[in-house]
Write a structure and sequence with these properties.
Elements: E1 18-19, E2 26-27, E3 34-39, E4 54-59, H1 62-74, H2 79-93, H3 100-107, H4 111-139
Antiparallel strand pairs: 1-2, 3-4
Helix pairs in contact: 2-4
């Protein structure tokens, strides 16, 4: 990094080491990293919708990558979860609010997909509240 906060003119940017998604071990720069791209309805890119629904896995070994891949094979891909994430991305860009027409255009979703994404989000929020209210009751 240069002194003004931008990239170093020499092009010698230091990269951060990777972290194994399974065990959390630091993977030293220059060592062999194991990567895979998996379908994941909870993965929504901050800006680019073309990356939505895809997650890059990083592992420190072939065995850890195999375990991660097995975990993601068992995880269902839920369209409404992905749609909820797309809606949230648009809403973050428009904190003042957005019309349903603009939401559909900016998210690339139909009005039915928007309704289902909102219903999924509300259902998951209710489930979370019920679970945590029960935990508080048990702890008293």
């Amino acid at each position: 990094m240069s002194t003004h906060g931008g990239p170093d003119a020499s092009g010698d940017e230091q990269t951060e080491p990777e972290i194994c998604d399974l065990c959390g071990a630091v993977i030293p720069t220059g060592s062999i990293d194991w990567y895979a791209l998996v379908r994941d309805s909870s993965a929504v890119h901050a800006v680019e919708s073309k990356y939505d629904g895809k997650r890059t896995l990083v592992a420190c070994s072939r065995e850890h990558l195999a375990e991660l891949l097995e975990q993601y094979k068992r995880r269902p891909f839920v369209d409404a979860e992905l749609w909820a994430g797309k809606i949230a991305r648009v809403l973050r860009r428009h904190p003042e609010g957005v019309s349903e027409e603009d939401l559909a255009r900016d998210s690339g979703l139909t009005h039915v997909q928007i309704q289902r994404g909102v219903m999924w989000q509300n259902t998951e929020a209710q489930r979370w509240l019920e679970q945590h209210a029960q935990e508080e009751d048990d702890g008293q």
